[in-house]
Amino acid sequence: EAAVTQSPRSKVAVTGGKVTLSCHQTNNHDYMYWYRQDTGHGLRLIHYSYVADSTEKGDIPDGYKASRPSQENFSLILELASLSQTAVYFCASRRLGGRNEQYFGPGTRLTVL
Amino acid sequence: GDSVTQTEGLVTVTEGLPVKLNCTYQTTYLTIAFFWYVQYLNEAPQVLLKSSTDNKRTEHQGFHATLHKSSSSFHLQKSSAQLSDSALYYCALSYGSSGNKLIFGIGTLLSVKP
Predict the structure, then answer these.
(1) For residues A14 and A22, what is the distance between their CA atoms, to the nearest angstrom?
(2) A positions 4-63 inside 8 Å of B (CB)
(3) What is the pLDDT of residue A100?
(4) DSSP string spanning A24-89?
(5) What angle do CA B1, B7, B13 make, to 5 degrees?
């Protein structure tokens, strides 16, 4: 069954540390996305990618980097984690085509202390 | 700026009664499609409805929505709420030449009481 998986599912990090969140999709989709979810803000786009080895900035990219080494894998990197980056992070994938929806992974709960 | 507005943060309704979740939007982009996503507790958001046709009713799982471009709205409705409908609902629109990006509202938490 086609799916988007994320690892880890939860993580506690220290301020100033490096955090890497991973996403893997078996949908054979072109697009992959990283969002963060915060109460009162909904889902906000951090980075996205439409092809391997290329990433694009979303609406809130500051403090985050992304990497797409293959069509199936998309990572979100926090080089210097900060308290304000405590949130739930969702990865999503989408097939090329104007009206196609995005399919979300189960999320990673990140707590920065 | 471009935005999707969901005016209610929390909607509480009694089981069996109708429910309406509001969604309006403002965008200068060429909008491709409109979506309602539902997120159950501790789960991923998933598509509930989608539409790209003005004034056409879309239905799924007992919910329905009609895109009205004249009023920039895409409200979600159900005639009889069920306990299992309790969840977080997001309105979103996709834009751009390939519809590759979504703008989400802040979400409305629907709580259905017995």
Answers:
(1) 18
(2) 4, 31, 40-45, 48, 50, 58
(3) 79
(4) EE-S--SEEEEEEEETTTEEEEEEEEEETTEEEE-S--TT-EEE-SSSSEEEEEESS--GGG-EEE
(5) 160
What is the distance in angstroms between the Cα of A43 and the nearest Cα belonging to chain B? 6
Give the nearest chain B residue to A57 (CA atoms).
B101
Chain A residues with CB inside 8 Å of B107's CB?
42-43
The model's confidence at residue A25, banded by pLDDT at 50, 70 and 90, is very high
pLDDT digits (tens, 9 = 90+) for B28-85: 877 778 999 999 998 999 999 999 899 999 999 999 999 999 999 999 999 999 999 9
